[in-house]
Amino acid sequence: MQQVLLLNSSYEPLHICSWQRAMILALKGKAIVLEVEPNRDIGAGHQMPLVVRLLHYVKIPHKDIPLTRKNIMHRDNYTCQYCGCHGDLTIDHVIPRSKGGKDRWDNVVAACLRCNVTKSNRTPKQAGMPLAKPPVRPHHFITFELSKQAVQTHTNRNTMTRWQKYMFWS
């Protein structure tokens, strides 16, 4: 099923919806189609929408991204941050809790069981195991949630590339 990026009137990403929902919003005059899929006619002279923008601003309350196992795994692309493998993943504290490390976005990473056991109760530097990338807090709730939703709905890479220009917080 074709997914459509729904933008607020300020061009802020809001949601990923079905092409049918996007067309209903456009036909009711609540949104305008900004981008369409080339050569994808859906009838009555309309093309398949790819990005739509609401005409009236919708206020969204600020939300923090919760520090959960699922969110950590998504941030790290379900990849061990030490060796790059994708299987048997756990959560590792960069600075171990026994050495004062906290449960924070900048101190936890996805790690395979083998690397987690090898690193043990040491820092990556002490263990000689550099991180692939430093752990950071995701910047924007909406963009983070959209990327999770796109993965869950198997949105294709070409569509994600065309949406990227609207994801100015990522």
Provide keyphrases for this structure.
alpha+beta, two-stranded antiparallel sheet, DNA Binding (I), subunit A, 2 domains
Describe it.
- The chain has about 170 residues and is α+β, with helices and mostly antiparallel strands.
- It has 2 domains: about 5-60 and about 140-165, no CATH class; about 70-125, DNA Binding (I), subunit A (Orthogonal Bundle).
- It is built from 6 helices and 6 strands, in the order ββαββαββαααα.
- It has helices at about 20-25, 70-75, 115-120, 125, 140-150, 155-165, and strands at about 5, 15-20, 30-45, 45-55, 90-95, 110.
- A 4-stranded mixed sheet has the order 2-1-4-3, sandwiched between helices. Strands 5-6 form a two-stranded antiparallel ribbon.
- A hairpin with a 5-residue loop joins strand 1 and strand 2.
- The two termini are about 25 Å apart.
- The mean pLDDT is about 90.
Short account of what is shown:
The protein has 170 residues and is of the alpha+beta class. It contains six helices and six strands, in the order ββαββαββαααα. A four-stranded mixed sheet has the order 2-1-4-3, sandwiched between helices.
Topology of helices and strands:
Layout: E1 3-7, E2 13-18, H1 19-27, E3 31-43, E4 46-54, H2 69-75, E5 89-93, E6 108-112, H3 113-119, H4 124-127, H5 141-152, H6 157-163
Parallel strand pairs: 1-4
Antiparallel strand pairs: 1-2, 3-4, 5-6
